[in-house]
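Appendix B, Record 12. Input sequence as logged:
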Amino acid sequence: MIRSIVITIVCTMMLNGKEYDPSWSSLDSRSTPQWFKDAKFGIFIHWGLYSVPAWGPKGSYAEWYLNGLRSGDSTRIKYHEDNFGKDFPYRGFIDLFKPVNYEPDKWAELFKECGARYVVLTSKHHDGFCLWPSEQSNGYNSVSGAAGRDLLGDLDQAVKDAGLRSGLYYSLYEWDHPDYPENVNDYVNDHMLPQLKDVVQRYQPDIIFSDGEWDRESKEWRSEEFLAWLYNESKAPSDVVVNDRWGGETRFTHGGYYSTEYDPDSDHIGQEFIERGWEECRGIGRSFGYNQNEGLEDYNTSEELIRLLVDIVSRGGNLLLNIGPMSDGTIPKIMVNRLKDMGEWLDDNGEAIYGTMANRATRSGKVKFTLSKDRRHLFAFIEKIPKKKLTIKGLNGAGNELVLLLGKNKKLNWRNFKNSLVIDIPEDLHRSLGNSPVHVLKIPVLPYLDEPLVDIILGEEQAEISISSNDKFAEYSYTFETDVINAKTSNKYDGPFMVSQPKMLNVQSYANGHQPSRVVTIPINILNDKNGMIRKTFQGQWESCLEMIEQQPIEEKVVNDLTIDTYRKNDFGHSFSGFILIEKDGTYEFQTTSDDGSILIINGFPVVDNDGLHGRKTVSGDIPLKKGFHKIKVHYFERGGQESLDVKWKGPGFEWANIPAFRLFRSDGQ
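Logged structural output:
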């Protein structure tokens, strides 16, 4: 007998008025505060003792100077011995860190001028040196050292006085603390947690950028306890924002917004990232901390940074752009110039950045888009405006309002031609464009509807389907399997209905004066005793799936999908085997996204080879398949750090989706 369950696409929960339990299931129900999603652009600052040597090989992080000395990095060791002496300890830099040119009010003024909406300063990096008078630092801080000043507190006040949001970076682990890693519990209980709570209570940050999480699981860091305290009891604002770096298993999974690093095109950025909120952090050069070894060629140009900001925002993200001040508190001129150039561009075009949302189609060819919150104006980002006319495919305008060129107050005529928007370009327009790396057009459009909400109540041999929406005036059409929805000819929803066979359901909202919603496709998993796959579980350490499956499993059971046990954290693996039912001849694509390795095999052929030790990575492959049953196997293993497995397929008439449970069987039906 199949247990009745409810599958519901739900809206995010209210931010305030809820007590959070110290568990990821509770903490993850807290939506990322909207102010952060609206802000789009922030400034990251890496500044500390590593700013004294300010050196690393090209392409490396200068703030990892101490780690290089400790790990035997010959280039850093040679530089250190040549410039400071063989016996000079890293902690000796506390006497050389003298920020005599540090003017926090001028820093905050620059950040506001460049268009940033929030600022995040390193309160403590992995070297353990604190920029505030931390009691737990035992004098290893900027107040007790030659700086003689609460560097964090002074900037925090200046940033807030400038009307910006103020946050802090905090490293969970330290390279040379006497209790780490030998006595992790003592380190966490007596040093890390009291220190982190102290900095929160003192400065009441709007953002906490945690880091160094990869070294331990979140349970060892006591991250769930800390975040519950932060949300329920601390002095932090009720709309405080945190990232996802709270344990070796949490990135892109638990915590607050998702964070990428020098990886804005990461292949796992999708709808889940947009809904949660995500942020790319990176330096203007390669290093976060100031690296005197970097030259002009190592820094992004202003044009590149503006285009990077546009690209990230068009895909629903934020850019946290780092600067690395010199040890005396001077922000390098090249960084100042880059920030001011970004500010000038944002002065003209900020309407298309701040408070916008990702459009359903993020681009058309080389043209990228953002959408106003009321969905009535689309902003098109164009690097080069052609002569006479501009054609944007897949877009239609609406109403009588003209297209506006931001920053120039130029209004342009337009017309719809089939499935394209054609904008007339006057002859004299190019003379007024200037050297902007990206031009922005504000285009009137019909607002689109929210996706419909679909409830599926599964019974023993049938399912009840209910459809609703946040848009109360919407109507709904639906089809099954790969049939395309047509508002005039498809099934009209007029109330809950029953389905007696497993199949894919497609639903779309529509209403007069609006564009239809995106189509929601969801499986109706009416299962029987032949459905499911055999899953074997293994325990151990391997470097490949092939090594794993040579071992004896510790467990064997029947499961209905290709998911891993969430309670297992390190050194385990699963092997799934069964049959997949293909309904139509054609070429099918499969992909696995995993950390660590995974392999997908059909009829003995390795369609996807994503094996080996690696971080979260996506690999795909294709295979022609005839209608009927085909053997399928998926192997997966995890060895330390984060664990994840996501298996999708794509075929005739449908795009990438999870393989529905009703297509998986333990036998071929014979």
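Residues 1-16 have pLDDT under 50 and may be disordered.
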